[in-house]
Amino acid sequence: MDPFIALKNKNTRTLHINPFVKESTKAISNLGQMMSYVTLHLSSQFWTHMFFILIVHDYTRIIQWDCGSAVITVPIPFNEEHYLFDFFIHYNYTKSDMQGSDSSVQAPETEELNTATHLINEFCNSSSDREEANNFLVISILSSGEHVNDNYVIEAPFATISLPTGHVTRTFITYNIHRDKCIFLKDSWRIDISGMPKKGETYIKLQDKDIPYIAHCLNLGDIGDNTYYRT
Q1: Which of 27-31, 55-59, 91-95, 152-156 has the lowest mean pLDDT?
Q2: For residue 227, how many other CB atoms are within 10 A of its CB?
Q3: Are residues 198 and 169 in the same domain?
Q4: Does residue 117 carry a pLDDT above 80?
Q5: Which end of the chain is more exposed for a tag (fewer CB within 10 A), N or C?
Q6: What is the per-residue pLDDT across 35-47, written as a single tens digit (0 to 9) for each?
Q7: Which of 195, 199, 197 is nearest to 185 (CA)?
């Protein structure tokens, strides 16, 4: 998903002043509409962050969204200043992880896909077009203490509305390539700040105390190095 653009009519003056959102019903409605766009894309694809271009009359704002917050520029009169044009030029030539692409997700190899669709009942029972490779993905998670990636074949997610924006917890029935077995995977987007616990570590603590009815945690890990995002 590359940057997407939302146009508002010339009677909408939200952009012409700071702060970003006025205390009016129309302004709040516009904000909710933008959040729904972002949420749909972040929930249906694997992106660490994304860019949104909001244009109102002859002004624009560039917004970077991730799971923790939105970074918003001041109003840019794009017919007078070059910043919007510069943004598109730099975005076109920058690395995919800086654009927001999740480097831990890739397309499966043919052999991986064939094994997964024959072994996992939920994959076998999918409709025939689901067996096409573009409907499946491989997620790589760094194995705890082993410094190697553990790979999981999953069905591609579908769009859902989940607020607050970006705070999506998704679960998958997966084929774990290393263990050659069906594994339940929980994908949780955590804000990376001091004191924010990791869910996997919480599961391990509960297991160590023999708390009943807790799923056994085989592995946990974060993606990337947080150079371009905070979640």
Answers
A1: 27-31
A2: 8
A3: yes
A4: yes
A5: N
A6: 878 877 777 778 8
A7: 199
Task: Write the DSSP assignment of 68-90 as a string of letters.
Answer: S-EEEPPPB-TTT-SHHHHHHHH
Q: Report, as an integer, the average pLDDT of 118-132.
A: 63
Residue-range definition of the domain harbouring residue 18: 4-99
Burial string for 24-35 (b: 16+ CB within 10 Å, else e) reads eeeeeebbeebb
pLDDT band at 100 (very low <50, low <70, confident <90, very high): confident
Do both 72 and 121 map to the same domain?
A: no
3-state secondary structure of 50: strand
The CA radius of gyration of the chain, in Å to the nearest whole number, is 21
DSSP string, 135-177: GEEEEEEEPTTT-SEEEEEEEPP-----SSTT--EEEEEEEET
Note whether residue 93 is domain-resident: yes
172 pLDDT more than 60: yes
Q: Which of 74, 99, 124 is the last residue of a domain?
A: 99
